[in-house]
Prior knowledge:
The protein has 380 residues and is mostly beta strands. It has 3 domains: 42-125, no CATH class; 142-194, no CATH class; 233-379, Galactose-binding domain-like (Jelly Rolls, Sandwich), CATH 2.60.120.260. 6% of the residues lie in helices and 35% in strands. The protein has 2 helices and 21 strands. A 6-stranded mixed sheet has the order 1-3-5-9-10-7, with no helix packed on it. Strands 11, 13, 14, 16, 19 and 21 form a 6-stranded antiparallel sheet that branches. A 5-stranded antiparallel sheet has the order 12-15-20-17-18, with no helix packed on it. Strand 9 and strand 10 (118-125) form a beta hairpin. The longest helix is centred in the first third of the chain and has 14 residues, at 21-34. The termini are far apart.
Amino acid sequence: MAGxxxxxxxxxxxxxxxxxxxxxxxxxxxxxxxxxKKGADVASTSSITVPAYGRFDITGTTxxxxxxAVNAGIMKIVQFDGALTLTYHATSFILPGDAxxxxxxxxxxxxxxxxxxxxxxLWYQRGTAVPLALGADSVDAITExxxxxxxxxxxxxxxxxxxxxxxxxxxxxxxDLVDGPTPPSGSIIGTTDTQTLTNKAIDSDNNTITNxxxxxxKAGAAIALSKLASAVGSKWVQPHAVAGASATLATNDGAWGxxxxxxxxxxxxxxxxxxxxxxxASLTSLDIAVWSNNSxxxxxxxxxxxGALTQSQTAHSxxxxxxxxxxxxxxxxxxxxxxxxxxxAAGDFVGLQMTRHGDDALDTISALRIIGxxxxxxxx
Length: 380
């Protein structure tokens, strides 16, 4: 038949030509039939020679920039078997989004010939069913929500890198991380925010809680007082008894009620008794406050006995060795008695004896005034 070719449009009879069943009918049917068949795989190359079949796979990873020329309107459905790049061209290789596409195994696409070697990709479908790209006005909700949870605009939750898709599944309904990675470093609450901690534990031994008053501590709350800003307790005790010549228990000296150890020829003693508070954790200091009317030297020592209920009254015995200390007239001075109670514990009963060695030549004061003893300690 005159004027026949491999194109479907040119295979009709020309003028009065006779019809050849093989070339004019059967071949045309084959051409149409091939559009519904899958052909052999085609290896990727920069310019793909388009096969006769309507469907085919492209293998390999070579970048593709063009398809070969066929008649306008011919469509091909392609499956990509590997990762390669389809290079966008505004005229000859028009792709969705007007941008290059990085393929993945299992992706499919439909291309339509525009003639003269120009092709238009009508659609492109990822094998994972994820859209090829988000539109300009679209929002990746998972990323946006995760980012908001982990990096609020005012930094009030957890400062750090914005969340990714995988992070969201690790937050439960209460806003807590569940079996997730360690959150980025940062502040739990911002510097200008006020938050209420409910059923939460602060487990670091280095934390100090400030600005808490008694009204803030609810019944049943277990708060270690040593962690509060005011963690030091104190107890003040006056002398209860004296012994020795010229020793007087209750004497007023100006506005002071004091015990006086006045002998310059023998030992005088003053006695103070107290119970150690129940919130006692450790000893800070134990000082006897004294003064003298003249500037001179005091020769002194101290001893104690202490123990808890059910223990012997001599369960613990400690002392301060005899020593000399200079006193300035009418100036209150602390005598450190800490070594006399080195094994002190909460609930102990303490008997403390302070001795002035007036018979010692090193003791040169006229009379010693004793105000009392001050116990300072760390609260539990």
